[in-house]
Amino acid sequence: MTEKVLQYLRDNREAQLHALHNFLSIPSVSTDSKHKEDVHQAAQFVKEYLDKIGFDKVRVQPTKGHPLVYGEWLGAGNDAPTILLYGHYDVQPADPLELWDSEPFKPEVRDGRLYARGASDDKGQVFMHLAVFEAFMKTEGTLPINVKVCIEGEEEIGSENLYDILTKRKEQFQADFAVISDSGMVASGQPTILYGLKGFTGLEFTLHGPSNDLHSGLYGGAVRNPAIAMAHLLASLKDQEEVVQVAGFYDGVEALGEEERRLIDNVPGENYQESTGIPETVSEKGYTAKEHTMARPTLEVNGLFGGYQGEGTKTIIPSAATAKITCRLVPGQDPDVIQGLLVKHLEENVPRGVKLEVKREPLSAKAYKVDPNHPLIEKAAESYTKAFGKETVYVRMGGSIPVVEWIESIYHMPIVLLGFGTPEDRLHSPNESFALDSYDKGMETLVYYWNAVRND
Amino acid sequence: MTEKVLQYLRDNREAQLHALHNFLSIPSVSTDSKHKEDVHQAAQFVKEYLDKIGFDKVRVQPTKGHPLVYGEWLGAGNDAPTILLYGHYDVQPADPLELWDSEPFKPEVRDGRLYARGASDDKGQVFMHLAVFEAFMKTEGTLPINVKVCIEGEEEIGSENLYDILTKRKEQFQADFAVISDSGMVASGQPTILYGLKGFTGLEFTLHGPSNDLHSGLYGGAVRNPAIAMAHLLASLKDQEEVVQVAGFYDGVEALGEEERRLIDNVPGENYQESTGIPETVSEKGYTAKEHTMARPTLEVNGLFGGYQGEGTKTIIPSAATAKITCRLVPGQDPDVIQGLLVKHLEENVPRGVKLEVKREPLSAKAYKVDPNHPLIEKAAESYTKAFGKETVYVRMGGSIPVVEWIESIYHMPIVLLGFGTPEDRLHSPNESFALDSYDKGMETLVYYWNAVRND
């Protein structure tokens, strides 16, 4: 039965790619109100495709912003699991247009890659699911699993209305587990299971000194310089061995076990010096760069400013200095607790002579991690390996995907992140593309996977 | 003889103030090329006044920029000293105009103060000298001293051409000592001898990390954050007790003796909390705020920046962070040596993982200090006290006046800083003014002083 489905995909490759071209031709830029109609048209494309395949209850579901598309096919029976498939049909703006080698909304294949805005993030990956469902339905008349499809139109603007809908319509989206294909592989052709994401919290703080910038000659020696006070306070947050010095910061963080260290060690590493131009990598004492980026919490200064920034010299004592900091968190760390510890540290360590003002960042996210030995994860890894002909690697990532945290916190269901992007995809940048090799082998992976999980 | 001169000043107060009004009415803004003619007209005013008094060799002397006015009167004979009088006839721009209560170039007297741009800095103080010379010449037909007058037109733009002229025409400006009236008293009505100025040196440095801002989730843990590296490096320059930690920084700085501590203690202190809004003063360990500001070197961050400065959060690792620092120096510290020590400290303490780039500030100044017991200083103090009816205080100041350093280094002559401004004068700001009480008593001081130094 698998072979027939795969054969359908091979036989209909041109026609399906043609449909994907049409999908990618719609400039569904969610952040730009002049593309409102286009966004709606892209939703309509997904709806019509689901209709065509034979899904039920297919609809463009309105929100306060851009609509989401819902559809379900629950004909696999009670023995088969029900999965919630999440993706998004909206895209990032395409500008600066002059940096594109072909037009962002006129898809073009060059050297085995499909170039278009959204080719990888996320229309291409959403379409792969539609194409695979089509192949099952056209050859078998059925899917191996029950499916609820939720494709939203506001991911690129922070999924503004999704949390609300997921909370209010729990019945509609309830499933056994969720699958999200909105991420990537660590290298082209390298099957990758993303089994953990970091959470985050942040704040901005200002050290206020004199009410105005002061003459450094007349006041230097009497007035604490807020920029130097800032240096002392920031330096107290993290030492030069990259160990965060905030009391309680690491409380509850689970130790990195031997198995996980081995998983991380198996992941092909990025050559950071080459890709970022840094003279050397620097990581937390006792951890490699891969271990620290994937599995250990971080604290970063995202912005820092105070005083004169123009050309040359202005001999002032600045009236204030400000820093923006965010932390990436791992399981065991609660974002609100960590934010509180940061504030406490700042309050306790603020140098004399300046006043501390803290603005807490209201957005936060909990870290997410699934057991890499979970059967759903193991089957995903096996399916990847079968399709790509290569051992699957397991990674955790420093980024956060809000929808992952929401699905977990609202539905308490496992989430499988099946991503097919490659590091060369240039998401959010000019010349976004998607490797057709990933497209073909990714669909093959999905065919194997749905068959594999059918009886779980 | 003194009484006749003073009587002349009283009898001719109206006429002289009228002339000062005319002087102040000329918008001689040296930084603004559309005022080039006005600047020249102000020079012409000074020239004509010197002519009228009976000075010799009076001329508007061209430079590459705005001219200076020179004139001399050497009729006091070989027994009398020759003094070089320095001042400037150019002024700061007047904007923002809407913050002035009367027009900046229409002088107006309100509540015992003369309001106009330049009233205190420095036209008013230059004019006082002219008026006093006039009084001597009209009543005695002679001055008690020989005088060379040098009034420049580029002080507010860094005295660009003065150093060159002072160096090339040593014969022309050579004298026994110099007098400069371009400063102020520590409080209205409080005679003040300024016997020391700080020098300065500075530099800007940047810590370069990745070639672009990076995603803090993907790279945090592998890449040193330049803003945090900056915090560590800046914090290493000065500890929280305000002691500079740069090796060799204090080498050669003379200890603050008991006599000087007493002089400084006598100076009425500024209430820094009130005037600047700071919660408390912070000074170098072992020194009071007055001692540190007046007589101890300082290191300040004038500007600090890196990464995101907009609203809210942007989760990046900045590609670089930059700091601008300047030091105010005291006698015994060579600006070039100190700059070199700073660079060495930065090079030796730069955290791993970032690259240091240093831009040395080319401008620098040596500190200046004259012995407060020098007879020329003692006589100035006595003259002040006689005119103002109050004990003179002795101060050193954290600022630098480049011309002071130049006159000292080129001519090796004592310099007496006879300033009559008050802290309320609002130099360089809207509503600049000059207290007429300072104007009258300042001229009286000058009359006493010229008589007192006649036979030195």
TrEMBL record, chains A, B:
Keywords (alphabetical) are: Hydrolase, Metal-binding, Protease
Q: Which GO terms describe its molecular function?
A: metal ion binding; peptidase activity
Keyword match Phosphoprotein: no
Quick check: keyword Iron in the entry?
no
Q: Which InterPro entries match?
A: Cyt/Met_Dipeptidase, Peptidase_M20, Peptidase_M20_dimer
Tell me one GO biological process term: proteolysis
Q: Which domain of life is it from?
A: Bacteria
Write down a Pfam family by its short name.
M20_dimer
The chain positions of domain Peptidase M20 dimerisation read 195-352
Gene3D superfamilies found in the cross-reference section? 3.30.70.360, Zn peptidases
Specify the protein name: Peptidase M20 dimerisation domain-containing protein
